[in-house]
């Protein structure tokens, strides 16, 4: 990696900590509102989706800008997806349900938005575990195949949001639209490869 | 005491109110003497500027009340937008003065009156109730209002009256959430007559000893403490006694998720949210969820209304 690329990567890392910093400021200023647990859960849920979209946009950006450097940040952004998804899940298990495992189990099996959300996190696990250079070398083509799971995860993540909302699905649909665009941009890449 | 606002200029009286006035006079004639009538002739329907004195609830110390700030800043009131903070932000646009509420349909003595007259007709009292939202959060709220049954008795429901339908306001210029067809406006709700006549069912006109804030349903809203919050329709303009079960707004929007009864029931789960437990609004970040109680804890008072009914079916 070149000198400036290392600095850009460090900068992206620091910027990626913004969701942690911003929630700390909100907690410190006591601005969590009437339902603080819900506020924190939603905060990390939203940032998980944002990082998911950022991760998915690195490949199309490389195509569009013809700059390969974007791909250097993809893994780090992907790990932030896992990081924020895990905090989101921990908030649900710990803050919201106080580790009441039976209630949690019932909530997961009875409600479809919880099922897909939980499933998305489970699928992120193998991706996070196999994210090292060593694993990439070891798994070779299988790695590529495995990491296509991110598309399934993106669909599940958006579905998790759509199914949570009672009536006004404007915000989840914005994420659905962004993810769709990022998918469509890939169709183009696949076609070119085949030619 | 109550101050009646006098608005003499016809220009500022909305047309429907002006027209309603004729009905109002007709109806009022039934219950008021002609001398009282002459003093009302020039007035428009006035909203409540202050609450008359009322009997305080004895239940102040039973459960910790939710703070006024939480009660007035975390609301589901789609007429003003779908986010919880929208009603606090936008409800101020709504003009609740003048306001009239009519009680009509299968009744012997239909009635149209304003809130000032209503609280003169029936003494107001404080009621401290738990409010459980279908989304899994709850509050404890000190309402001030009148028992609905006192009002219904005044209009003498006929034998055809089996259900009560409540209709809210449709005024997109002031209720900016109505600019979207998010729900079928105006919001409608309904109760079975025996539910409406139950002594726990009230029409609230106040909160924390003061006039009801707009984001909480001013000038008048329903409160049915053993049912999920969406049953407690806000900004009521019409109460209709009817023979057939009314189709409520949420039943129309999503019949699989919202039934007519909507009784709080930890055993009957909602497809979206768990109903077994709830989060009490305003508690600290580290507070645990509470177990949701059958009929929101009013089982002793209301369970008999549903004897023999399959509550899984009639959710």
Tally of helical runs of chain B: 9
Helix-strand string of chain A:
HHHHHHHHHH
Low-confidence stretches of chain B: 1-15, 24-42
Return Rg of chain B in Å. Answer: 19 Å
Total count of domains of chain B: 1
Oligomer: heterodimer
The overall pLDDT of chain B, averaged over residues, is 88
CATH architecture of chain B: Alpha-Beta Complex
Q: What name goes with the CATH superfamily of chain B?
A: Oxidoreductase, molybdopterin-binding domain
Task: Give a quick precis of the structure.
With 195 residues, chain A is mostly helical. Chain A has helices at residues 3-15, 18-28, 36-65, 71-96, 101-110, 112-129, 133-139, 141-147, 149-164, 170-194.
Structural commentary:
The complex is a heterodimer of chains A (about 200) and B (about 325). With about 200 residues, chain A is mainly α. Chain A is built from ten helices and no strands. Chain A has one domain (about 5-195). Chain A has helices at about 5-15, 20-30, 35-65, 70-95, 100-110, 110-130, 135-140, 140-145, 150-165, 170-195. By secondary structure, chain B is of the alpha+beta class. Chain B has a single domain (about 10-305), classed as Oxidoreductase, molybdopterin-binding domain (Sulfite Oxidase, Chain A, domain 2), CATH 3.90.420. Chain B has nine helices and twelve strands. In chain B, the strands form two sheets. In chain B, strands 3, 4, 7, 8, 9, 11 and 12 form a seven-stranded mixed β-sheet that branches. The longest helix of chain B is centred in the first third of the chain and has 17 residues, at about 15-30. Chain B is globular. The interface of A and B includes residues 27, 35, 100 and 113 of A.
Question: What attributes does this structure have?
Answer:
heterodimer; A: 195 residues; mainly alpha; 10 helices; 84% helix; 0% strand; globular; B: 315 residues; alpha+beta; Sulfite Oxidase, Chain A, domain 2; seven-stranded mixed β-sheet; five-stranded mixed β-sheet; 12 strands; 20% strand; disordered N terminus
């Amino acid at each position: 990696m070149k000198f400036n690329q290392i600095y850009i990567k460090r900068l992206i890392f620091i910027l990626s900590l913004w969701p942690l910093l911003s929630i700390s400021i909100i907690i410190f200023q006591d601005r969590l509102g009437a339902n603080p647990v819900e506020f924190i859960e939603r905060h990390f849920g939203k940032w998980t989706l944002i990082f998911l979209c950022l991760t998915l946009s690195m490949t199309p950006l490389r195509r569009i800008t013809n700059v390969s450097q974007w791909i250097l940040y993809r893994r780090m952004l992907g790990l932030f997806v896992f990081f924020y998804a895990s905090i989101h899940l921990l908030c649900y298990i710990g803050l919201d349900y106080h580790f009441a495992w039976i209630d949690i189990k019932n909530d997961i099996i009875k409600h479809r938005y919880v099922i897909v959300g939980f499933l998305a996190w489970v699928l992120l696990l193998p991706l996070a575990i196999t994210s090292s250079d060593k694993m990439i070398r070891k798994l070779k083509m299988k790695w590529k195949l495995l990491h296509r799971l991110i598309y399934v995860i993106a669909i599940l993540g958006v579905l998790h949001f759509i199914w949570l909302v009672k009536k006004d699905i404007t915000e989840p649909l914005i994420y659905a639209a962004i993810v769709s665009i990022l998918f469509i941009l890939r169709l183009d890449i696949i076609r070119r490869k085949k030619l | 005491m109550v101050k009646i606002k006098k608005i003499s200029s016809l220009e500022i009286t909305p047309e429907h109110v002006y027209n309603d006035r004729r009905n109002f006079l007709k109806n009022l004639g039934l219950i008021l003497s002609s001398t009282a009538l002459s003093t009302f002739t020039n007035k428009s329907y006035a909203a409540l500027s202050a609450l008359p004195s009322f009997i305080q609830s004895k239940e102040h110390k039973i459960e910790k009340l939710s703070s006024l700030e939480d009660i007035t800043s975390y609301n589901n009131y789609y007429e003003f937008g779908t986010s919880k903070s929208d009603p606090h932000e936008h409800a101020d646009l709504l003009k609740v003065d003048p306001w009239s509420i009519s009680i009509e349909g299968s009744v012997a003595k239909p009635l149209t009156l304003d809130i000032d007259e209503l609280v003169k007709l029936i003494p107001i009292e404080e009621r401290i109730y738990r409010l459980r939202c279908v989304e899994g959060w709850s509050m404890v709220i000190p309402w001030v209002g009148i028992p609905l049954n006192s009002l219904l008795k005044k209009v003498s429901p006929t034998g055809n009256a089996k259900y009560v339908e409540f209709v809210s306001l449709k005024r997109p210029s002031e209720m900016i959430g109505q600019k979207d067809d998010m729900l079928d406006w105006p919001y409608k709700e309904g109760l079975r007559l025996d539910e409406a006549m139950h002594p726990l069912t009230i029409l609230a006109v106040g909160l924390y000893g003061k006039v009801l804030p707009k984001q909480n349903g001013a000038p008048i809203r329903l409160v049915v403490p053993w049912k999920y919050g969406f049953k407690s329709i806000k900004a009521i303009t019409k109460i209709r006694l009817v023979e057939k079960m009314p189709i409520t707004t949420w039943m129309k929007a999503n019949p699989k998720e919202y039934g007519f009864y909507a009784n709080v029931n930890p055993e009957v789960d909602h497809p979206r949210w768990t109903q077994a437990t709830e989060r009490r609004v305003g508690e600290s970040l580290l507070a645990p969820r509470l177990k949701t109680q059958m009929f929101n804890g009013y089982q002793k008072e209301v369970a008999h209304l549903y004897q023999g009914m399959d509550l899984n079916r009639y959710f």
